[in-house]
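B., you asked whether I could sanity-check this one before it goes into the benchmark set. Here's the sequence:
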Amino acid sequence: MAGLATMPSRQATFPVAFRSIIGQVDRLYLYLDGHTEVPECARSDRRVEPVFAADLPGLAGAGKFIPLFRETAPFLFAGIDDDIEYPDDHVASLRAALEACGGRAVVGYHGCLFRIPFESYYHDRVRYYFGREVSQSRQVDVLGANAVMFDTAKLRFDVREWPGRNTSDLFLAIEARKRGLPLIRLARRTNFPRPIASRQADSIYLGMQRDDKRQTDLAKRLIAAGAGTVPMAFFCPVPVLVATVPRDPANYWQWINGELDKLPPIPRPDKIPLRSYHGPYGWSIQSWMYLRDEIDVHLLYQILDVGMTLAHSDFWPKNIVANERQFFVEIKPDRNLKLANPDAVICQTAEDPLFDSELARQGRVFAVQNWPQNNLIRRNPQRRHVTTACFHGNSANLLTSAGILQLRTRLQDAGIDFCMPARPAWHDYSNCDVVVAVRRPEHFEHEMVGAFNVRTKPAAKLINAWHAGVPAILSPDPAYERLRRSDLDYITATTVDEIVGAVRLLEQDHTLYQAMVENGARRATDFTVKAVAQSWIELLSEKILPLAREKFGAVCQSSG
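And here's what the prediction gave me:
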């Protein structure tokens, strides 16, 4: 069953809209606002149930919802407008989409999201127009009542109780939110449906340009109930990188290595050239590449004037402070914080000392697992013996120079090579039989700060070893210990003697070696790109975005 409201000024568009939809519905309630007779094209159609405004005055566009209080039995309701031409499969497409949601949703083709901070319904929205193709469906804050469908067994209301008119979209959103029904803007092809006319002199849209106070007040009610989207972007201050990011995330590692070699040395505040390190780019550009198809997030080389900016510590300008319309999230590496007063901090391990701070007690410090090594090449399955041990990483995170030399000599005496690949080859474990990543003892001293505090280090080398199918010999880092479930996860060592002994054990005990490989394969399933992406999505949507809403909500209240 469909509902449509029209008025005499739409006499040119109504017949086109009516003829495009009438063959797709069993009945059509037609609210005639200002008419003295039924329009000729609908006059003799038995499927039409005319209702004159003289009998139910003042409903305006909300008159399309009359069947919701006139009919008692449940039915599927389709909202229709008098200035849109609907495709032949319009109702069937809506019905299929609704059924895919189990009937527990309102589905439609025209919708919008509120931008937070929110001050104006006309200005502070992201709108999805009919004229543009949309490749993916997504939940929105408001659906246009001109192309919607819902099950009246799940959603029913009486528009005569609505306190205002010509705000049907917003009141529909409020009614759906009361019943916990999501509003889903569906994927669609271009001009599906097709507007017949736009910007008519009597349109609600043009009226909002002059005065949108009623709509803004209703929208703020929805925002107070949890609606609204905060503009969100990862920040990388290197325009050439932002402009050349490959579409396929699998190409990230090869691309970033090639691009960084081309860059001139860009000094950070600590005077270290940006091209010397991969970490900031992995936590910003790579994160965006993995998340952009899952959530509404951008990659920019400028900090957002309004909204949430996420950036690695090395990318934040010195002494910058967020204003009331900005929300700064610092992605903290194995060093001290850059921002004096970040709105939120993401650490690369839950063992970071920052979790002991006042900022953490305020609920503004979080941890997320690092991404597994991009484009990782697993150990060659044809290798049958332990002949090569490897360390994939910066040498500052290994033994002292003297310790490395001693380790290499001792392993060579045992017939085992020790390799430390250059950074572009960190993804390649094809000829690696054992991962060795043991820190120098002083890294475990409590007074160590910044990049040498082991509590700030992630579990990256363990997780990559699991994915690579290679047993690992590691120092007792807190991040490793936090993930440990059994002795098969990795072998702990702190000295050269212990490392050599562990390597020889794996060389001689093929049963242990294979058991560690198989255990690592099982453990790696919890640390896939998909799993890490989901943890990012949950962190942003359930923890950090509510903080941003809280901050920006104060702006809404003060401006209201």
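One thing to flag: The radius of gyration is 30 Å. Otherwise nothing jumped out at me.
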